[in-house]
Write a structure and sequence with these properties.
The chain has about 100 residues and is α+β, with helices and mostly antiparallel strands. It has one domain (about 25-100). It has 3 helices and 4 strands.
Length: about 100
């Protein structure tokens, strides 16, 4: 299978964009449920807080996403942190990742 010139150019452009993303500082590497929203942390500390999938996606796009993201146990017990149900924080993050 051979790739067209246009396909190769697209792959190179996507690779360059991904490289820029990887170079961002303060990449989100940890999330926790808090007061009905999501706190996002990097190795430098808190970098964002949001209650909507759109705003979470904005922070993730702006700060970048680490190769691994860990979560606090508060994500599993979200009803104790301002969410209606325990799974709501995880569902909110899932919606945000779909927008990234």
């Amino acid at each position: 299978m051979t790739l067209s010139y246009e396909s190769c150019i697209h792959i190179i452009e996507v690779s360059k964009e991904r490289e820029k993303e990887m170079q961002k500082s303060n990449q989100v590497d940890f999330v926790s449920a808090h007061n009905g929203g999501i706190q996002m942390f990097s190795d430098q500390g808190l970098v964002g807080y949001a209650k909507t999938a759109e705003t979470i996606a904005y922070v993730l796009n702006t700060k970048g996403i680490a190769s691994e993201i860990f979560q606090s146990s508060s994500m599993d017990f979200a009803s104790e942190y301002g969410f209606e149900n325990d799974q709501d924080a995880s569902l909110l993050m899932k919606k945000a990742f779909e927008l990234v």
